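Hi everyone,

Forwarding the result from last night's run.
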Amino acid sequence: MTYLVMECHPGYAVVLDQTGRFLKVANLNYQVGETVSFVIECTAEEEPITIKSLRRRRMLLSAASLAACFFLAVLGTWHVCLTPYGAVRIQINPDLKLTVNRLDYVISADGLNDDGLRLLDVSRTKAGTGFWRAGRQSHGNGLSEGRRTDFSYSGILS
């Protein structure tokens, strides 16, 4: 089959075959008006650009950028939430070590003796897993209330 070269571009050429079809072929240093017997046809057809495809591309790009921003925000706050900021060791009979982050959440609690381990097991079964909020506010004077109820001196001081 013979082909007549109609147009030449740097990457491709347009040829006319014997049946009257125009074909897009690879340009192998063809000249306009040349007759060739062997061509390499470009079979990949490009999808025409429509408004619908532009909208789809814009929506996909905006969704990807929103997901990237969300990922960066989560990654930035994850560091703040899980980095230890301070530790509190309670050395009364249940010996505990509590590690606190910048948001005043307890991120780890370790029992340092048997009573501490037992206390943590009981509190984890009641409260479930997750972070505990370390309170900065005092809800009343717990020491004075504890003295009145638990350590009654009424028999000694009366």
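The CA atoms of residues 16 and 22 lie 5 Å apart.

Cheers,
N.
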